[in-house]
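About this split. The held-out portion is used to measure sequence recovery: a designer receives only the structure tokens and must propose an amino acid at every position. Recovery is the fraction of positions where the proposal matches the reference. Here is one held-out target exactly as it appears in the evaluation file.
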């Protein structure tokens, strides 16, 4: 199985509304890196919409496609979370979530009506935020003498790496996000510097 070099995601939040027979559906699409990011956002929206009847959602995180969740939040099984997740998947989006808030309007929509409403609200929100393609990254932990900082930063810039974390004490410790397609080149260049310790973070 080939490892993907890129993935699609969104970089900013978007909101869209959909109405059907008195019920109002408000969809929020937003980027997430971890499940905890989503939970924080979910709690915030629950405070902002205290009178809403349902908070249905789906998210997919990571580039292997295995970290995802969807919730019907009391709606009939499969009528909300799955249609929302379907919109993320139909656009091949990861590291993103869509949460759809429903204000009940008094009339039952039935399962087909609910599927359409949640799917439409999610689709509209995702259409309002631009899709971006990002490189799949692998993380290295580096340790080196601070006198090598300029040489290390030249490698970082040359191969489009990103410094995730850095500490300078007796030695410099750095967490480095490296494009997975350039992994071998980066390791080779860093090893050329000698005395740079490189460990892949699992």
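Reference sequence for scoring:
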């Amino acid at each position: 199985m080939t490892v993907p070099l890129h993935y699609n995601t969104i970089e900013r939040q978007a909101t869209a509304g959909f109405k059907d027979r008195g019920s109002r559906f408000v969809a929020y699409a937003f980027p997430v890196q971890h499940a905890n990011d989503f939970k924080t956002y979910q709690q915030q929206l629950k405070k902002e919409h205290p009178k809403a009847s349902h908070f249905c959602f789906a998210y997919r995180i990571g580039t292997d496609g295995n970290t995802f969740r969807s919730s019907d939040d009391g709606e009939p099984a499969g009528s909300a979370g799955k249609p929302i997740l379907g919109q993320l998947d139909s656009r091949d989006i990861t590291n993103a979530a869509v949460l759809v808030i429903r204000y009940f309007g008094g009339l039952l929509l039935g399962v087909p009506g609910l599927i359409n409403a949640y799917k439409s609200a999610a689709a509209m929100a995702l259409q309002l935020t631009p899709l971006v393609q990002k490189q799949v990254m692998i993380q290295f932990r580096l340790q080196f003498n601070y006198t090598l900082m300029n040489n290390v930063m030249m490698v970082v810039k040359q191969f489009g790496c990103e410094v995730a974390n850095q500490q300078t004490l007796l030695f410099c410790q750095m967490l480095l996000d490296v494009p997975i397609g350039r992994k071998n080149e980066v390791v080779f260049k860093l090893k050329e510097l000698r005395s740079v310790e490189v460990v892949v973070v699992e």
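Annotator remark: The CA atoms of residues 187 and 198 lie 7 Å apart.
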